[in-house]
Design brief:
Strand order of the largest sheet: 6-7-8-3-9-10
Number of domains: 2
Order of helices and strands: EEEHEEHEHHHEHEHEEHHH
Distance between the termini: 56 Å
Radius of gyration: 19 Å
Structural class: alpha/beta
Largest sheet: 6 strands, mixed
CATH topology of the largest domain: Rossmann fold
CATH architecture of the largest domain: 3-Layer(aba) Sandwich
Oligomer: single chain
Helix content: 25-40%
Shape: globular
Number of helices: 10
CATH class of the largest domain: Alpha Beta
Number of strands: 10
CATH superfamily of the largest domain: P-loop containing nucleotide triphosphate hydrolases
């Protein structure tokens, strides 16, 4: 469902994403990991059609998102790492607005909005302005907005930020059910435990390139790291095992 071919993004002389090739098929929950500045969010935004690649292609459901952006984006739900909503809209109005961007309105979409608000325990605040929502409530509203048009692909950047444990568990279960039904999820996260438990396959990005990708067994084989946790594999591949000395800042 998602195919990246030689995907590259440059800012002047700096290369943020350097020729990434990747295939994420239907029915898979795929994790994209990497240290800060590795190119994860830039890649996510190019897949979502927010950033234009310097070169290379992004295919969503066999559709080039640059050549046919409306068709590709109609299949995709995007959940950013920072929940932006319009403060002077109510929760219900915000979801109605998002649905209208996809040409959806009427009684069926009203039922869909009510279902999503109920699922994320936002129904009591449907008529409240989103400026009164907490960070976690805004995050849940953004997730509902990504699902309102029934996408085939979900692209999500740090999905659990701001969510309480119950909501985080709900989202995990929702993603697993979504891929079981044939959907595709590409998820970027810094939380190794979440990625190791949730993801079918994982790619570790370092300095704009994929350092390794595959199942946990395949990652261990590629790095000759039998028995290592994902956190240890990640640190080994990204140089994080060379931890700085702390005594200089902690000594009296």
């Amino acid at each position: 469902m998602i195919r990246l071919q030689a995907l590259t993004k440059r800012y002047g002389k700096f290369t943020a994403v350097d020729g990434i090739d990747l295939d994420v098929p239907r029915g898979e929950l795929f994790g994209l990991l990497g240290p800060n500045g590795a190119g994860k969010t830039t890649s996510i935004r190019m897949i979502a059609g927010i950033l234009r690649p310097t070169s290379g292609t992004v295919m969503v459901g066999g559709i080039d998102i640059q050549a046919r952006p409306l068709e590709a984006k109609a299949r995709l739900g995007y959940i950013p790492d920072r929940p932006f909503v319009y403060d002077k809209l109510t929760g219900g109005e915000f979801l109605r607005f998002v649905a209208a961007l996809y040409g959806m309105q009427g009684p069926a979409i009203e039922r869909r909005i009510d279902e999503l608000l109920e699922l994320f325990e936002l129904a009591p605040w449907k008529g409240e302005l989103t400026e009164t929502y907490s960070h976690g409530m805004r995050q849940k509203l953004i997730i509902a907005g990504a699902l309102v048009h029934r996408p085939e692909v979900i692209v999500v950047d740090e999905p659990m930020v701001g969510l309480d444990p119950k909501s985080a568990r709900l989202l995990k279960d929702l993603f697993r059910e979504f891929v079981t039904r044939g959907g595709t999820v590409l998820m970027s996260t810094h939380t190794m435990e979440i990625a190791e438990v949730m993801c079918d396959r994982i790619a570790i990005v370092y300095r704009g390139r994929i350092a390794a990708h595959g199942t946990m067994s395949e990652l261990r084989a590629q790095t000759s790291s039998e028995g290592m946790s994902l956190e240890d594999l990640f640190l080994k591949l990204t140089g994080g095992h060379q931890m700085p000395r702390l005594d200089t800042v902690l000594d009296a």
